[in-house]
Design a protein that fits this description.
By secondary structure, this protein is an alpha/beta fold. The protein is 38% helix and 20% strand. The chain binds adenosine monophosphate (AMP). Adenosine monophosphate binds next to helix 10 and helix 12.
Length: 398
């Protein structure tokens, strides 16, 4: 079975074509600058091909993807008829779409209805789905939601303590994001530990440009750091993470900022970038800190503290911890951050082997637990696209 996985962003379209029998990625790539010029990067095996193409919308970008996948020179299939199903990454499934779903008219209608609570990611995802339905009307399409992993979170952990009608009428609540990544790495962890996930209390740290931490108790998400939007939780590349909400109104009242301006400050100009004044990329901030830049040092310390606090909170919520997982760009690559997070956590049973942590092998699940520690600590590379392909295969085979 061949499955095309699509991830449509506001000006991009990422794709991967999987052969499910061999779990192999046949080809993958990205269309960028959709709506403002455009170019495509297409990879097959070790070869990469790039071309400037005008992409006025996601539909034209998808046409280009399909023609490259089928082309004599760069293709991997003879015709699009070989694609058995398409899996779409959809960030937000709202309260109703609690699991990956075959796309129907009513699913699209619901996604359109919840655009007000998902204004950034909703419209491009819907555009990608509609483009696909038009170009491949006979192929099963599946939507896989970042939020659906959190359908097991109880209301005492997702309702905000504001007037209840804001939840009932406006659907303001914690939703949680990156669910597909947390689901994938927690399942992988159980597999490498050789234990049933039902017996494990796990904290997964997805640390990238956007970061979130999730408590998974017996295979079910119990709590997570991102909230109504991906803004809440730990310090991120350009996002503040959790702050006192009164900061927002204070800035509006004293500086005359509009709601949009404050949102841009907290979403695009805060976090590592805002505090260090250097970059949203942690590599640059670490380099600056190593050269003695105090604000860079502070930004890193704020990040570490925000992660540690959540690990402590989630261990308390689960009444214990069996395993801690690091994943995504920072979690998988930055051994110094993992070391700082795990420092002075022996009370909770978290102790890592500093040598293993520093000399880890990239790209595979890697155990960095210190001998004798109560909590297993692992680096697990995330693979959201593969998880989407697995769900798509399951639903399309029914
Ligand atoms: P992501 O959003 O998952 O792509 O992660 C982006 C973050 O991961 C950035 O802050 C980078 O500093 C960090 N990162 C990504 N790749 C590497 C790498 N090879 N080495 C060190 N840091 C990396």
């Amino acid at each position: 079975m061949k499955i095309l996985v699509l991830n449509a962003g506001s000006s991009s379209l990422k794709y991967q074509l999987f052969n499910m029998e061999s779990s192999e990625v046949l080809a993958k790539g990205t269309c960028e600058r959709i709506g403002a010029g455009g170019f495509i990067t297409h990879k097959r095996g070790g070869e990469a091909y790039t071309e400037e193409v005008d992409f006025p919308n996601h539909g034209v970008a998808l046409e280009k993807v399909l023609s490259l996948l089928c082309s004599k020179e760069y293709g991997v299939i003879a015709s699009i008829d070989e694609i058995n199903a398409v899996g779409h990454r959809v960030a937000h499934g709202g309260e109703m779409l609690k699991e990956s779903s075959i796309i129907t008219e009513s699913v699209i209608k619901y996604l359109e209805n919840i655009v007000p609570i998902n204004p950034l990611h909703g419209p491009p995802a819907i555009a990608g789905i509609k483009a696909c339905l038009e170009l491949m009307p006979a192929v099963t399409q599946v939507a896989v939601f970042d939020t659906s992993f959190y359908s097991t979170v109880e209301d005492s952990r997702f309702v905000y303590a504001i007037p209840y009608e804001f939840y009932e009428e406006d659907k303001i609540r914690r939703y949680g994001f990156h669910g597909t990544s947390h689901r994938y790495v927690s399942a992988k962890l159980a597999e490498v530990l050789g234990k049933p996930i039902e017996d494990l209390k796990i904290i997964t740290c997805h640390l990238g440009n956007g970061s979130s931490i999730t408590a998974i108790n017996g295979g079910k998400a119990m709590d997570t750091s991102m909230g109504f939007t991906p803004q809440e939780g730990v310090v991120m590349g350009t996002r503040s993470g959790t702050i006192d909400p009164t900061v927002v109104t204070y800035l509006m009242k004293t500086k005359g900022y509009s709601a949009q301006e404050v949102e841009d400050i907290l979403n695009k100009k805060s976090g590592l970038l805002g505090v260090s004044g250097i970059s949203n990329d942690l590599r640059n901030v670490v380099d600056a800190a190593n050269q003695g830049n105090k604000r860079a040092e502070l930004a890193i310390q704020l990040l570490i503290n925000s992660i540690k606090k959540l690990i402590g909170a989630y261990t308390a919520e689960m009444n214990g911890l069996d395993a801690l997982v690091f994943t995504a760009g920072i979690g998988e690559n930055q051994h110094n951050i993992r070391e700082m997070v795990c420092e002075n956590m022996s009370y909770l049973g978290i102790e890592i082997d500093k040598d293993k942590n520093e000399h880890f092998t990239r790209g595979i699940p890697f155990d960095i637990t210190k001998e004798g520690a109560h909590v297993a600590t692992w680096i697990i590379p995330t693979d959201e696209e593969y998880m989407i392909a697995i769900d798509t295969q399951r639903l399309a085979s029914k």
